[in-house]
Amino acid sequence: MRILSGEPERKRMTVPFSDDELMQAFADYQLALPELGEGSYKVAYRGRSGSDDIVIKIVKEPLPEDDFDSDDSIPFPTRFGREIEGMSQVDSPHVVKLVEPPRKCRLSRRDYIWYAEPYYPGGTLDQAIKNFGGNEDLSRRLVIALLRAVNAMWSDAGIVHRDIKPGNIVFDDAGSPVLLDLGIAYHNDLSPLTDAYGASPRTGRYAAPEQFEMRRIAEIDFRTDLFQIGIVAFEALVGHHPFWYEKIDSSEYFRRLQSFDASSFEGVSCEEDLQVVITRLLAPRPSQRYRNVSIPLRRLGVTV
Predict the structure, then answer these.
(1) How far apart are CA 264 and CA 133, in angstroms?
(2) What is the pTM of this model?
(3) CATH of 2-10+20-118, one of 3.90.180.10, 1.10.10.10, 3.40.50.150, 3.30.200.20
(4) Whole-angstrom Cα distance, residue 299 to residue 280?
(5) N or C: which end of the chain has fewer CB within 10 A?
(6) Residues with Cβ within 8 Å of residue 247, at least 6 apart in sequence
(7) How many whole angstroms separate alpha carbon 89 and alpha carbon 160?
(8) Residues 162/202, Cβ–Cβ less than 8 Å
């Protein structure tokens, strides 16, 4: 079912420009083909800026056909503008940063927005789990890094990521996890962009229970991200999702979503402190999860 898809519930656009046009437009950045990845609204390519490897991301929706005096006058789509603002506001080694600010480029006789992020050579968590399975060291490192990332997003900018999943987690050259893609993030101090009577933006398979509720009554805050950390931490530990499996129906999925407990760790090699933290992160109601990230971090023997 689409509601349990591993991708955000957004219509995917096709890439509207050719490889030759890209190579010409980004001749100074040594663009590598094919693309690194493609999402609903953006496509990513590896390139170089000086001696640094970077990821160039291009928004697939072209800009209105108007004249802009400079890159500073580009009319960013609202959600994209918030994503860029969030990347600029959050100061954490575990949250992606901008290395090139948004600019416009000319492709297929239309203007498109592009920007650049660092390239992370360690690949994604999704790739790591598929290639090597899960283990306790990976899960522990992941929980610690993501808790620190969530703390920085919430305390620095009032941001809830809302899309923490294996494809949005990469590893730097030291093996440290970094969280990508604030594209559907919730900004606590800004007006919501979704209908009050609709559900929150989400990737169904990695969403917290409250993300399936009507937005006007849903309790969305940093604790929503805590639940998502619990999902990816369990997956990194054992190599499979704590709730989802092939051909599961929605009623069974939602029953499992509400009923995670310590029995899920039977037969799993894992220290008690990590089991306790993951179990509480996966509590079905926000009020049952941690009230701040320092509590689980202390339980794991580290600080914020």
Answers:
(1) 17
(2) 0.89
(3) 3.30.200.20
(4) 12
(5) N
(6) none
(7) 13
(8) yes
